[in-house]
Write a structure and sequence with these properties.
Layout (H helix, E strand, L loop, with lengths): L1 H45 L4 E8 L2 E7 L4 E7 L2 E6 H43 L4 H7 L3
Helix pairs in contact: 1-2
Length: 143
C-alpha cells in the first residue's frame, strides 16, 4: 500500500500546484483582460483620441506619457510579445484569450480528476488481489 501513498502525494502536489499557482495566474490574467476591456470601452464611449497617463517603469517608478492617437494600442499577447490592435481587434483578442484561459483551467481540473480516478482504480485492484476487505482499506485511509 506504500505505492498508494506515493500516488496520493503526487495527486496532492498537482492539486496544490493548480490551487496555488495556476488558479491565481488565471484570476490575474482574467482581471488584466477585464481591466483592458473596460479601459478600451471607456475610450470608445468618451471618444478619447488623445490621452495623458502615468506608466509604471518597474519598482513603482512612474513617468508621465502622452498618447497622441489612442485608436491603436499595443496588447501583451504572451511570451513577452506585443501586438498593435485597433480597439475592436483588441476587444476580440481579449474575448478569445479569456475563453482560452477558461478552457485551460477546465483542462487542468479534468486532468486531476482523471488521475484521481486512475489511482482509485489501481488501489481497488490491489485491494482485490491481496484479498483485503473493502471496509478495512477504507477505514485507514486519510484521502
Amino acid at each position: 500500500m506504500e505505492g498508494e501513498y506515493v500516488k496520493m502525494e503526487k495527486v496532492h502536489k498537482f492539486e496544490e500546484f493548480v490551487d496555488r499557482r495556476l488558479k491565481p495566474d488565471l484570476v490575474n490574467a482574467m482581471a488584466e483582460s477585464s481591466d483592458l476591456k473596460r479601459n478600451i470601452q471607456m475610450l470608445e464611449s468618451n471618444g478619447l483620441t488623445r490621452l495623458r497617463t502615468m506608466v509604471n517603469l518597474g519598482s513603482e517608478v512612474y513617468v508621465q506619457a502622452d498618447v497622441p492617437d489612442t485608436h491603436h494600442i499595443f496588447v501583451d499577447i504572451g511570451l513577452g510579445f506585443y501586438a498593435e490592435f485597433t480597439w475592436s481587434e483588441a476587444l476580440q483578442f481579449i474575448s478569445t484569450k479569456e475563453k482560452a484561459l477558461s478552457r485551460q483551467a477546465e483542462d487542468y481540473t479534468r486532468q486531476i480528476a482523471n488521475i484521481k480516478a486512475q489511482i482509485k482504480l489501481v488501489c481497488e485492484g490491489i485491494r482485490e488481489l491481496l484479498n483485503i476487505p473493502a471496509d478495512v482499506h477504507g477505514s485507514g485511509s486519510k484521502h
